[in-house]
Amino acid sequence: MKQRVFYEEFEPFYYYNGNTQDWNMEGFHFHKNYEIILFMSEGASIYINDRVFKVKKGDLFLINNREYHKTEGVEGKEYKRFVLMFDPEPIVQLGTTMGYSFTKYFEEDSEDFIHMIRFSEEHLTEIIKLFQKIEALHLNCNTKHDNMRMTLAMLELIVYVNQQFDFLTISEERGKEHELILENSIEDRELIEQIKKYINANIENKLDLVEIADYFYMNKYYLSHYFKKKTGFTMSQYISNCKIAAAKTMLKKGYSVTETAVALSYNSDSHFVSIFKKMTGTTPKKWSQE
């Protein structure tokens, strides 16, 4: 379902550790900060651009300031998380000076990369300690020295996360685990089913890629690639198949060729007959008489 996207303003540094009952964001938001979110409860969902993940305790996500996103908790349950947001500009400048890219995994944009790590219990304990270190310094940040210590603690956390991502890229076992997370955590099946249901519910309309992409708030090129990859059909092939299936049902019920063509928004009778014959090997009239 199409949802609104809105810009939200945050301070250059934002920290949150807590839980919320029945959490559900109003829509997708984006902001100028980079964000690290560590989930501490099961079952919540996070939507990042065109991807949807069902999260587990210990899942950590990196979100840059070009990605619109939203989170949803589970109805009736507490949604627990750590959230850290920061202005990337000074961190990037510092990294340039030091010859180290603090933000490289926030900015990784290859198609098969997901900005997510699922921590084991051992590593989860370590990352929680780093969040809590930032929290303690944040609560008692009164001087420039305190602010510097807090910044250093934040950089320590980012470096730790980068190390884990580095390990994913060089470890075959962890790499396979990461691929499995991508395959299983993204709700591909659910999203594909939603798209199919939308097409069938609106089969009487002309339907095209742009309309469907707009409805699901997806980039049309990504949707085209994504749908073909998951179903084996192009979007136009699937729509044509559905229209022909609907046409067969109508013809069997006694609708005329013209009535069927009009009801399914074909350009003309001849257009409908041409498509029907191409896909079935016979004309609508002959098919209805069989």
Automatic annotation (TrEMBL):
It comes from the Bacteria. Keywords: DNA-binding, Transcription, Transcription regulation. InterPro entries: AraC-bd, Homeodomain-like_sf, HTH-like, HTH_AraC, RmlC-like_jellyroll. PROSITE patterns: HTH_ARAC_FAMILY_2. GO terms for molecular function: DNA-binding transcription factor activity; sequence-specific DNA binding. Gene3D superfamilies: Homeodomain-like (1.10.10.60), Jelly Rolls (2.60.120.10). Residues 193-290 form the HTH araC/xylS-type domain. This is AraC family transcriptional regulator. It comes from Lachnoclostridium phytofermentans. The lineage of its organism: Bacteria, Bacillati, Bacillota, Clostridia, Lachnospirales.
